[in-house]
Amino acid sequence: MSESPLMLKALRFEDIPRPPVWLMRQAGRYMKQYRALKERYTFLELCRSPELAVEVSLQPMKEFDMDASIIFADILLPLEPMGIGIDFNPGPSIENKIKMISDVEALKTQGVAEQCSFVGQAISSLKKELNNNQKDKKTILGFAGAPWTLACYILDQGPLKNFAGSLVFANQNPEALKLLLNKLADVIEEYLLMQIEAGADAVQLFDTWAGLLPEKEFRNIAFSPAARIIEKIKKTGTPIIYYANGANHLIPAMLEAAPDCIGIDSRTPLTETLELAKAKKIAVQGNYEAGSLFKSAGSVQIETKKMLSDLSSPTGYVANLGHGVLQRTPIDSVRAFVDTIKNSSSTWQ
Ligand code: CP3
Questions:
Q1: What pLDDT score was predicted for residue 162?
Q2: Closest ligand 1 atom to the C-alpha of 28?
Q3: Rounded to whole angstroms, what are the CA distances from 121 to 85, 118, 195, 315?
Q4: Which of 67, 79, 156, 329 has its CA 20 to 30 Å from the CA of residue 315?
Q5: Given ligand 1 and candidates 25, 61, 328, which is best to mutate, with the most ligand atoms within 8 Å of its CB?
Q6: Separation of CA 52 and ligand 1 centre (Å)
Q7: If you take atom 30 of ligand 1, which residue's CA is the nearest one?
Q8: Alpha helices, DSSP H only, in the chain?
């Protein structure tokens, strides 16, 4: 039997010689190969065609050879078969936002995963493309948005911006919100199980906007729908990463949800979080500041080495950014980050 890939070992908290590395949004507009395809296809066309989604997912793998390949898609895709119109230009725009409980009741949950089977097809062929090489097996990552974060995009925010309106909605319509989050959790469970069935080796649950909530509200509103998805996925034996942005205050709660790994952003201290998570054998992913990749390749190499040398051991750590790669990020600095991690074994010898 061939050895499991480094990324899966890290997620299972097994001993590893160096951390695995991949980047959130590793495929995207900072790459000229992606921009070239975007001249011919819209973002949704790229997502909905398994051939094109695989091609885009492979672009960063060919350029930088990360340890994991995340399938090219978007967290908002499963909303469409639920009955919510989505478009991207390039940020998301939602056609019919949720205003009242009857809007929530009208949302469909049956058959949503099947209608997103193009994501599963893309995962299956990505896996075939990447796993020809038995020596250096890549981990195929599926993903989905967590219920609260998806709700932040579809709730009518009124005149409020930056998702503050989601909390107002939560307080004014607690029953509608509860029903919405439960329906989203049902859909996301099925959607992730479909991706696992198709061949995803691990999955990431993006709760990007969880950090918006104070801890009490997070626990009251967003925690259970996310925790239930995590529990369900863990039963399949497939590791799950739970990511939240700006969520230093939520680390204890995120650990209580008991994912295999928590993803943290750059405002959350790495070494302290690793210590907290280690006690529960939960891995930590992150948290190099995406904006720091605008420094020269040389500076990125120095900073990345420093970050690694602060770790007592690579076990239980997955190298990544604190959030997605930004547009116009210099390619050489991305390469410096990935290569520095890949060449880091000697740090712990
Ligand atoms: O990581 C990867 O390489 C896989 C692809 C991926 C995309 N979106 C592609 C994308 C992933 C994992 C996502 C997740 C996603 N989508 C999240 C969670 C992660 C995060 O950033 O916090 C969120 C909140 C979304 C919703 C979304 N989709 C936003 C806010 C935007 C606009 C972003 C921007 O950079 O303007 C999108 C569109 C989107 N999703 C793009 C890409 C490459 C840009 C669209 C384009 O190329 O025109």
A1: 76
A2: 43
A3: 23, 5, 9, 33
A4: 329
A5: 25
A6: 16
A7: 91
A8: 6-11, 32-38, 43-48, 50-64, 79-82, 101-105, 112-115, 117-130, 147-154, 164-172, 174-198, 215-217, 223-235, 251-256, 270-278, 297-309, 331-342
Q: Which ligand 1 atom is nearest residue 91's CA?
A: 32
- The token pair at 30 is 């900072």
Is the C-beta atom of 76 inside 6 A of ligand 1? yes
What is the residue-wise DSSP string for 228-275?
Answer: HHHHHHHHTT--EEEEESS-GGGHHHHHHT--SEEE--TTS-HHHHHH
The residue type of 329 is: T
Task: Concatenate the DSSP letters of all residues of 127-155 into one string.
Answer: HHHHTT-STTPPEEEEEEE-HHHHHHHHB
User: From residue 17, how far is each of 7, 284, 311 by CA, in Å?
Assistant: 11, 16, 13
Q: What is the DSSP string of 203-237?
A: EEEEETTGGGS-HHHIIIIIHHHHHHHHHHHHHTT
For the chain, what are the domain ranges? Answer: 6-348
CATH entry, 6-348, from 1.20.1270.10, 1.10.150.80, 3.20.20.210, 3.40.50.720: 3.20.20.210
Q: What pLDDT does 93 receive?
A: 94
Q: Rounded to whole angstroms, how far apart are CA atoms 180 and 11?
A: 31
Positions in the chain short of pLDDT 50: 1
The pLDDT value recorded for residue 1 is: 46
Whether residue 250 contacts residue 271, with contact meaning beta carbons closer than 8 Å, is answered with: no
Q: Is the CB of 208 under 6 A from ligand 1?
A: yes
Residue 164, pLDDT score: 85
Would the CA dihedral through 107, 112, 115, 116 be positive or negative? positive
What is the reported pLDDT for 2?
56
Q: Please state, in angstroms and as integers, the Cα–Cα distance from residue 260 to each residue in 202, 222, 237, 240, 339, following that order.
A: 10, 19, 10, 5, 25
228 Cβ inside 6 Å of ligand 1: no
- How do strand 139-145 and strand 92-94 relate by DSSP bridges? unpaired
Sign of CA dihedral 336, 337, 343, 348: positive
